[in-house]
Amino acid sequence: MKSNLQLIAEKNRKEEQAEKEAIRVELDNQATSSDRRNFLKKAALGGIALGGLLHLSIEDTVAQTTQSVSRASSPSDLKITDLRFAHKGGSGLPARIIRIDTNQGIYGLGDIRDGTDQRFALFLKSKIVGLNPCNVEMIFKVIKQFGGHGRQGGGVSAVEMALL
Which pTM does this prediction carry? Predict the structure, then answer.
């Protein structure tokens, strides 16, 4: 037999789901205009839906607000799989951007600074592939020896930016 708290929580979840569905139907309706009054009405409905979370415990609130977050990723299994380079021309110094990809579809972007040649960043690819990008300090210790003053540091700087 369920306790009273569980029954109340279940009832509240059903009410919140019904409110959420009503809001979704209202927003998806093509006849809904986008005037100020309608905006205020939508904002009020959203506030009511969020207000429904106030009675929940912290754990339930976190679970409710993060229910659409993908749980398939595992940070400890995250590995760098590729480092790519893109060149964007323009006035002044051309922009050179690197992209670090991971095995879970997450990527980071970094700017190769001061017009440095992209080969300084691409040289670091063999040093970082297979490492966990969450451990920025360890990766920096591995690649900092290939940086230095002047343009050699542009590649190391770009990799560090992409990891953060």
Answer: 0.53
